[in-house]
Amino acid sequence: MNNKTQNNEAADNDTELELLASQNLRDEWLMLEDIKRGESKTPLEWFIAALAVAFGVWHILTNIFLNEPGLWQNAIHFAGFAFLASTIYSAFGKNKHKPWAIKLDLFYGLLVAASALWVAASESRIYDDTLAVTGQSWQFSPVDWLAGGILLFAALDLSRRVSGWVIPILILLSLSYIMFLGEQLPGVFRSASLPLNDIMFRSLFNDEGMFGILASISSTNITLFMIFGGFLVVSGASDFVIESSKLVAGRIRGGAAFVAVLSSALTGTISGSAIANTASTGVITIPLMKSNGFRGRFAGGVEAAASTGGQLMPPIMGAGAFVMASYTSIPYSTIVAVSVVPAILYFLSVAFIVRIEAVKYKVGDDQDLVIDKGKIISGGLTFILPLTVMIWLLMTGVTPSYAASWAIAALVLVSWATLVIGKILNRDDFKPTVMGLSRIAEAFMFGIRASILTGVLLVAIGIMNNAIVTSGIGNSFSLMIAQWSQGSMVVAIILIGLASLVLGMGLPVTAAYIILAILSAPALAGILADGVIVDQLVQGIADPGKSAMFMLVDSPHVASIATGMTRPEALELMSAIPFEVAITLRPVLVDAEQLTMYLLIAHLIVFWLSQDSNVTPPVCLAAFTAAGIAKSPPMATGFQAWKIAKGLYIVPLMFAYTPLISGSWMEIIQIGFFGLFGIYALNCLVQNYAEGPLKIWHYPLLILGIIGAFLPLNIMANIVGAALITLVVVLTHKGLLKESLTESAA
């Protein structure tokens, strides 16, 4: 590595630490950058770093070798992250390095951790004490009340520290709703109030509470994948991502922007976080794009849009795939498998915009990017082989946590194997990164540092989850969506999209997805299932047992159920069915496997729509992060990112109206292939440009092409649509070529 590169890396590290300081974080305590620069850590900082490493090792051991009860595992998981969050995310702002501030944060973190362990240890005793007092409510000792109160307060305070005020406000509203507010509300939102000890018990010990399902997702899967991502980054796999992206896309028009798309797609397999993805790859790709002639706001928009797609990219997919697997009871491997083609569609939709921009503004030529072949060879082994091990294990049916743990072990072994290969090859440019003890410790710290946010939030959101399940407001929300949409899938998706945008302004994407999934996914799945019932009504339901279930519906079309009816009549009949009756009808008239698939499709739609808050103004953190790197106006960069990321809205519609998820592999490939033509044509319409300027008569050709390309499984319409779009591309290319020749002659 030359001196210039070392200086640039040192500058990047200094910039990162300055950014951390401005955010009132002590994040450098979980880094070894100061040691690399010849500085020293205090004994306390060494203790916190060692604790983070030990905590990471415990996560591997508890998911493979130890056999702790779920409550204990989740309580220890939260205790560790609560201590780290209170230590790293100081409550004292500019005074964070004052001795008294550090002591108070440490004491508070230890108090919350001790409370979590006390609650886990008290479960059996609380059951015994309550059973001993027959007919009485839950019996808590004064220490139980104190520990529970500290945990509820910590959920509010720590979630505020790591993500702002929105989640604490939602937690307070949720608790108020089941405590006293629900009985004051009218209509479907009215709910009985619960006594305080019942609320405390449910919040702490229910499967839907703080140490329940959501905490298990974090302790068993998410943290291990974050640690695996840390090992990939520290081992040089991230260098491989950048260098291989340069190799693939660096010498084509707009190549620097394509590097951003490719590197963000590959980095998504590591990080699963749009903001982290933007920050890590953007410091390289955004300056490359600007030097390649792209506008700053466009460069930032491309990076933000591509990085947002990182959370859609298998196998990690942020935390979404794990939450989805838990709520739908569909294997994680299945969710990952069906998400591959949609993720490819999204990244190609971003690439299409890059191509159109490069041609339209005549930028992106003559950029010969320097490629470090040694990083490609050494980093490629540590990137590809461990990922292959993990994916192979997932396909065999093991748990994600087991697969991630052994992938980490494989990465360490591969890093040492690269050292042997380097000795054999004896090449100066081949410099593998061997995972010795210091780098392993650094990787654990990286993974644990990245997991603090989800480790805290998923436990805190458990309080809301419990309130939603206990009160039944989730069914009320689903009923509201069903009534407002009147059975229209498009309207339901628009409503959910608006809700996700509002929630995403103050919530991390994973939190927004969880809340929306609890509230709206059942309604969306119900609308999808109702389409099957409508088809049956059109044909006629001859089975007396099934047709009799419609007798409770107040509609003149009930008399025609056995003989069949027109589709408008069937839709009108379905809209008249009460929500409670519809819930009973669906399991009888729709196959259980279909219902499960519709639930998965609904969750995927919600998950994709929840990503839009990263790139949609007025609050779009990934775009704002990119704007900071590009030194472009934040809001203008946000609008560029929103335009570029329109695949976030197109692909969910394909989920709803085509068998992109539920079809055979041949059907999925057909839909995906021709869908690319439609997505490209939509981008042309938005940009008013293809391979050259669009003329007025190109528009009807593109519109007809879009309709034909998107018609599901209609091969003739698909071919005609693709041909029309291709014709416009050829015509605009010839027009631009003719214009260029005329300018040259002049």
UniProtKB/TrEMBL annotation:
Residue ranges of the TM segments: 46-66, 72-92, 104-121, 141-158, 165-189, 209-234, 255-276, 332-356, 376-395, 401-422, 443-464, 484-503, 510-529, 668-689, 701-731
Pfam families on file: DctM
One term of GO molecular function: transmembrane transporter activity
Keywords per UniProt: Cell inner membrane, Cell membrane, Membrane, Transmembrane, Transmembrane helix, Transport
Ranges in a coiled coil: none
One annotated Gene Ontology cellular component of this protein: plasma membrane
Bilayer topology term: Multi-pass membrane protein
Primary location recorded for the protein, binned into one broad class: membrane
Entry superkingdom: Bacteria
Residues of the TRAP C4-dicarboxylate transport system permease DctM subunit domain: 151-655
Subcellular localization: Cell inner membrane
PANTHER family: BLL3936 PROTEIN (PTHR43849)
Task of the protein: Part of the tripartite ATP-independent periplasmic (TRAP) transport system.
Name this protein carries in UniProt: TRAP transporter 4TM/12TM fusion protein
